Amino acid sequence: xxxxxxxxxxxxxxxxxxxxxxxxxxxxxxxxxxxxxxxxxxxxxxxxxxxxxxxxxxxxxxxxxxxxxxxxxxxxxxxxxxxxxxxxxxxxxxxxxxxxxxxxxxxxxxxxxxxxxxxxxxxxxxxxxxxxxxxxxxxxxxxxxxxxxxxxxxxxxxxxxxxxxxxxxxxxxxxxxxxxxxxxxxxxxxxxxxxxxxxxxxxxxxxxxxx
Length: 211
Hints:
Blueprint: E1 10-17, E2 23-32, E3 38-46, E4 50-52, E5 58-64, E6 88-90, E7 101-109, E8 113-123, E9 139-141, E10 145-149, E11 162-163, E12 167-169, H1 178-202
């Protein structure tokens, strides 16, 4: 009997949705290639510049993987993937602009299935002194962590912990070249005014008799 297993039993991808500089959404796709259910925790630690909305957390789609023979493995879309009662959410304190937000989501991945999670967030408006030197580049968001766990606490999970690549968030950024334009314009006007005033005060007007 030939069994075709992929190189990685679990795969995960994460992307950003939204095109404006005020709101957005995380979109996570987790694929279970194993013929058995997998319990796991998905963790997000986002900087304070991102404010997640826990009320928008949802499982958008549950679909089965296509078998190599061409027939699809039936999977009920009513499978309880997300245990909302065990979700851990630690937002930063009010006024704290340094501590990150911690979000831990317990999941049960059905066998041979693809799970799509999403939750929305709000991008904070930064003071001009809080922007990094390369503000136009954006802000780095740390990668998410998928940790498979064993149903038996005394037996460690045989699946490795997985990390997603970091993402780049685009926040509202002021035009930092404007102060230099203002300095140049103000300096030019002051130089012109000072030159005219100095010329009027120091110049001697002499009457030249006509020949």
